[in-house]
Specification:
Blueprint: H1 22-34, H2 39-49, E1 50-51, E2 54-55, H3 57-74, E3 75-76, H4 79-101, H5 107-118, H6 124-131, H7 139-160, H8 164-167, H9 173-194, H10 200-210, H11 221-241, H12 244-254, H13 261-277, E4 293-294, H14 297-318, H15 331-338, H16 340-358, E5 362-364, E6 370-372, H17 374-392, E7 408-416, H18 427-441, E8 459-465, E9 469-476, H19 479-483, H20 487-504, E10 509-515, E11 519-521, H21 524-528, H22 540-553, E12 558-565, E13 571-573, E14 579-581, H23 587-602, E15 606-611, H24 616-629, E16 632-634, H25 641-656
Parallel strand pairs: 3-4, 9-10, 9-12, 12-15, 15-16
Antiparallel strand pairs: 1-2, 5-6, 7-8, 10-11, 13-14
Helix pairs in contact: 1-2, 1-17, 3-14, 4-5, 4-7, 6-12, 7-14, 9-10, 9-13, 11-13, 11-14, 15-16, 17-20, 17-25, 20-25, 22-23
């Protein structure tokens, strides 16, 4: 093995698992942003929920709460008292047996002893105190009684130093002297530290002498104090959780620990030093335990430490404090309480949070608020466009559109010439076809010069029609869209269409127009982050005015009008610029809207209405508008809205091609239900 190699415990999950993929996280965050959440809150909600592959913070917090409840319900705090009572009964029973068997004992002495045993107080602490000066006739009873003192000493030590109960079972006088020396030196070190007089050498000397008592290996005096204070505070909370009677019994019994009150004095001194050095620990709390298995002092302190650790984890998982980050989660503590898988889930969530913040998907604006960056918008748009593509892929009749003319772009492929083609020839392929044909037919003599072309040899450069369009997507932003759950699908639709045009049809010009009580043009970032507008009014009239302005800015392009709405027009602009609103729709509002639609029709706009909902009045109105404008009405399911709009746009492009249109098998018939089609292949990527 190479010198210097080091091994440590593996802390990851499946080593063959793929790296963290932000696509699913970004999709979920984008959905919440479009629903009105801030990006920061949307990210928090995603981390809280988790996803199909990993548990979120809520699930981890739920398991923490269940673990805490289980610890409290499964235990009570009188374990030490029960054990003392059992040992006491064993000692008294053994002594009574010895008194009955000892025929040489003076009858008066026997009677006195039996009377003393008969009149022992019911309190275990008082009984132990009274029997501490009793002269045992039975050696077995004496040994059992000494076990009570030994047990109490080990339990008291276990409260402050984990593992002491087992380590000092059957402690000798020498062991007890070592414990007393350690406690005295420890208190001296802590008091010196409190005065600011200790040095690293003092700590090193203490650990060299008493390091066996601290297997966790603290590196300095502060780590030592932290560990001791946490355990001592848990011990105090355990005492606080007892009934007054239990506390009184244990306090009285503790004076019998190891048969020496000096131990209790040293421990009380230690508790005082630790409280002074770490006043921020919870020294006054308590818990309500159940009626389950009895806990001794040491085990009970350990449970209280576990509960404190669980409480700290719950706060870390809640992430409700200022500056909270998932890096704050104590993964070692989470492993101890819930196991390795929980720690792996938390670590993965932390990596996702860190990656989202560092990958450029979230940007902090001039106002200090996080926003989805253009990079995130593109990623989200690709996902939405891919979803639209999957929905479109089930439709029948799609085929690529191949067209010529000066506005066509080469695809990189070639095809056999057909009558009417005007594309340029691919000369290398054409000549190669002729040579191959002559060689295959045996008609080409060795050394012959020149080649004879035939029509079947000719291949032309394949191209795609690039008729440019000025596209106006009008989306209803009225009260009913938000109320009926159509707000997010509307935004998804706009983002998918924006992604398609900005990446695949860059020559087209898209204008996003939201129309509620008023209409306004919106950048894609503004529309994506637009909060639900709880204001009544559907001003399609104003939206059409803005659409015409967009068409006039691009006079050489084909106008395309796409309108997504769930209600009849209930508002219009007056000549003064004021808004007229009335419900049900006023005849003047309808007339103004129809007049502006006529204006877009005169500009040659190809018009499609996307009707949401089942309002029969809206259906009749849009059917009339479509008939008047020579357009069409599509009534998709809400989940199909994005695919319907994208499919309609692509179908419009196909119909603008000299080889598209509504002929049999043409791209214009690709999606009969939506009245549109692709017009080209492979547009998602």
């Amino acid at each position: 093995m190479a010198r210097g190699s080091r091994y440590q415990r593996y802390e990851g999950g499946d080593p063959l698992a793929p790296p963290v993929d932000l696509a699913e996280a970004l999709d979920a965050i984008g959905e919440d942003v479009m629903a009105g959440y801030s990006p920061e809150r949307a990210m928090r909600e995603y981390l809280r929920r988790g996803d199909a592959d990993r548990r979120g913070l809520d699930d981890l917090a739920r398991r923490i709460a269940e673990r805490r409840r289980e610890l409290l319900d499964r235990h009570d705090l009188d374990g030490t008292l029960r054990e003392v009572q059992e040992l006491l009964e064993q000692a008294v029973l053994a002594e009574r047996g010895q008194l009955a068997r000892d025929v040489d004992m003076d009858d008066g002495d026997r009677a006195l002893r039996e009377l003393q045993l008969d009149n022992l107080p019911p309190s275990p602490a008082a009984a132990v105190s009274e029997l501490s000066s009793y002269e045992w006739a039975s050696s077995e009873a004496r040994e059992t009684f000494e076990q009570i003192k030994d047990l109490l000493g080990r339990e008291l030590l276990e409260q402050r130093f984990a593992g002491m109960k087992q380590a000092f079972e059957g402690a000798t006088e020498e062991d007890r002297a070592a414990i007393a020396a350690m406690l005295a030196d420890l208190n001296e070190l802590l008091e010196k530290h409190a005065r600011g007089e200790d040095t690293p050498e003092d700590f090193a000397a203490f650990m060299a002498k008493h390091g066996d008592f601290f297997p966790e290996g603290p590196r300095d005096v502060d780590e030592l104090i932290d560990a001791l204070a946490q355990r001592a505070a848990a011990a105090q909370r355990m005492m606080n959780s007892m009934t007054p009677e239990q506390r009184a019994e244990l306090m009285e019994l503790s004076q019998q620990a190891f048969g020496s009150p000096a131990l209790m004095d040293q421990l009380a001194r230690l508790d005082g030093n630790l409280q002074g050095l770490r006043p921020g620990e919870d020294w006054s709390g308590s818990e309500q335990f159940g009626d389950g298995e009895g806990l001794g002092l040491g085990d009970g302190t350990g449970v209280l430490q576990d509960i404190a650790e669980l409480d700290a984890l719950a706060e870390q998982l809640q992430q409700s404090y200022n500056g909270a980050r998932l890096d704050d989660i104590d993964l070692d503590a989470l492993t101890r309480q819930l196991g390795d898988e929980a720690a792996v889930d938390a670590r993965t969530l932390s990596e996702i949070e860190r990656a989202l913040r560092s990958s450029g998907y979230l940007q902090r604006g001039s106002d200090g608020q996080l926003r989805l960056s253009p990079k995130a918008m593109r990623q989200l748009g690709r996902a939405l466009l891919r979803d639209a593509a999957e929905r479109l892929s089930g439709r029948q009749g799609a085929r690529e559109l191949q067209a010529g003319g000066g506005s066509a772009d080469a695809t990189g492929g070639t095809r056999e010439w057909a009558f009417g083609d005007t594309e340029p020839w691919d000369l290398p392929r054409t000549v190669l076809n002729a040579v191959r044909r002559e060689v295959a037919s045996g008609g080409r003599a060795p050394g012959a010069r020149g080649v004879r072309l035939e029509i079947a040899d000719v291949e032309v450069v394949e191209s795609e029609q690039r008729t440019q369009a000025a596209v106006a997507l009008l989306v209803d932003t009225s009260f009913s869209m938000a109320m009926d759950g159509r707000w997010v699908p509307m935004k998804r639709t706009a983002l998918a269409l924006h992604q398609l045009i900005s990446t695949r049809f860059r020559g087209d010009r898209l204008e996003l127009i939201g129309f509620g009580r008023l209409a306004e043009t919106l950048a894609i970032e503004e529309l994506t982050g637009l909060d639900a507008i709880w204001q009544k009014g559907t001003n399609l009239h104003h939206g059409l005015l803005l659409a015409q302005r967009h068409f006039r800015r691009h006079p050489g392009m084909q106008p395309v009008l796409l309108v997504v709405t769930d209600g009849e027009p209930t508002a219009h602009l007056e000549s003064s610029g004021d808004v007229w609103f009335e419900y049900p729709p006023h005849p003047v509002t309808l007339a103004r809207t129809v007049s502006e639609l006529d204006g877009t029709t005169r500009m040659g706009a190809q018009t499609t209405f996307f009707r949401l909902g089942e309002d029969p009045g809206l259906a009749r109105f849009l059917d009339a508008l479509a008939k008047r404008a020579g357009g069409r009405v599509i009534a998709p399911e809400l989940d199909d809205l994005g695919a319907a709009v994208v499919g309609s746009y692509l179908g419009d492009r196909a119909s603008r091609s000299p080889y598209g249109g509504s002929g049999s098998g043409g791209a214009g018939e690709t999606f009969g239900r939506w009245g549109g089609g692709w017009g080209r292949g492979g547009w998602v990527g």
